[in-house]
Amino acid sequence: MSRRYNDNDIQQLVIEYHQTGNPEVRERIVEQFPTLVESVARRFVNTGEPFEDLVQEGYLGLLNAIDLYKPDKGTKFSTYATHFIIGHIKHYLRDRGKLIKIPAWVQELQQKLTRVVDSLSQQLGRQPTFAEIGAVMQMDEKQVEYLLSTSELLRVASLETGESDEEEHFSGADLEKLEHPESLSLQLAAEERVVLEHAMERLKEIERQVLYAFFYEELSQTEIAQRLGVSCNYVSHVLRNSTRKLRKILVTEELRDAQAQMMRLQQRMATTEAELLQPSIVDPITGCYNRRYFESRLDEEINRASRYGYTLGLVMIRLGGASLFIRQHGLNLFEGVMARLAPRLRAKIRKADIPARIDVSDIAVILPYTGEQAEVVRRRLSEETLQMLREEDLLESGLWVESACHYTQEWTSVSQFVRQTECMLRAFWGNPEVPQDMAA
Known about the structure:
It contains 20 helices and five strands. By secondary structure, it is α+β, with helices and mostly antiparallel strands. The longest helix has 45 residues, at 232-276.
């Protein structure tokens, strides 16, 4: 059981890590945040992604936060880490097409529409018509019809994103301190600014001036009137009319986008249903991922490590003598050995690491953000495996431990790492075609 640290202790650990670069210190920091990572991951469970995958992505975000954190900026590390954990999971979901961003204008109109429909239903004693709703909301019937047609999309997409009102509690001062490009990309989407600027161009010059002064510069109507040399009543009139015109412009564009999003959501739901019919990605005996998932995930992690410039390690553990053991004692007995070994190995790695059973007697572990330390992990897992074989007197039954590891040293040649890794995998699966410098 790892020791629990308070906020000041964690802050000192982070400072120590940045001064020394000691990977053991980084591991101690990671061990302090399992509750935070898992609580953030639970917000996204309705996206259809396995909870374990979301947790792994959360830990990758945490590791990224540890490496990028700047103690001298004065931001509390837990605040900084939370921002990166959420961001990393969101980026992961967007990459896999699992996240729909619901425009703020559509959400606001949907809430107003609900209130108007409820109020009119009570007054009229029946469901109001499109015309009656439009008269109250100052919209034409076609816009009302479009808005009503998106209501189910908004409910589904809101659940799908896993977002909540309490998702991010960052003060403006905290966000200003997050100067890294990755953190900036998690803020206001550029496409929303483009849509708003395009809509503003369709207003009169006086309307643009009033809106900009009121909403962006946060001036009062009196201050705006003094700047423009007009009356307060005129400013109020322009503000009321220009916001109404802007809303109508945006409603049409946003609702068209929402219709397109609804079609994409329906397509994705059909894809998800097809994915559910595919074989499981988890080995039923060990609870680790299976070889099919391992191969696709390794390719994913190599590309990601190349893109973001971090190191990637790979460790493999094999129970030697498995074929003879199975012939003498049966497959069921050997499967029991693998079932007991897997949780012991998982307990010796980070939650961000990705263990998989890649063959009957082989377990591989992908190690994000791990370079030379992959050799340390290899020794640790080998020792744990050997310890279990001793405890269960399996050495006398003809089983032994074999292991191998590989890691990225630099990213000048990604293709070379892919080729070397594939060579090592073929060697580890019994193919004699392997260079001498890759022997375990």
